[in-house]
Amino acid sequence: MADSGEDKKPDVSSTEHLNLKVRSQDGTTTFFKAKKTTKFSKLISAFCAKQSISEAEVVFMFDGERLRGEQTPEELDMQNDDTIDAMIHQVGG
């Protein structure tokens, strides 16, 4: 007899991890493992810390659209091994 007060297991699709790649303009690739529900602000902070650059210096793009920190991979229907482009702001002419 099952106890009706037990916690249900979370939906597998909501906790599934994705392996994402962040490719810099210089061609280097950094790999991240994130839940589909993790906000990009966390990934952006981690990438900038690894590269020793300010978050204000970088724009992150996926499929030609700029990523916002409050978005999640699930919102953008990202799949395993998708690539995010990291573009460094250029100063000068």
UniProtKB/TrEMBL annotation:
CDD domains: Ubl_Smt3_like. Keywords: Nucleus, Ubl conjugation pathway. GO terms for cellular component: nucleus. It holds the Pfam family Rad60-SLD. It is found in: Nucleus. The keyword Repressor does not apply. Its main location: nucleus. Residues 16-93 form the Ubiquitin-like domain. InterPro entries: Rad60/SUMO-like_dom, Ubiquitin-like_dom, Ubiquitin-like_domsf. Belongs to the ubiquitin family. SUMO subfamily. This is Small ubiquitin-related modifier. It comes from [Myrmecia] bisecta.
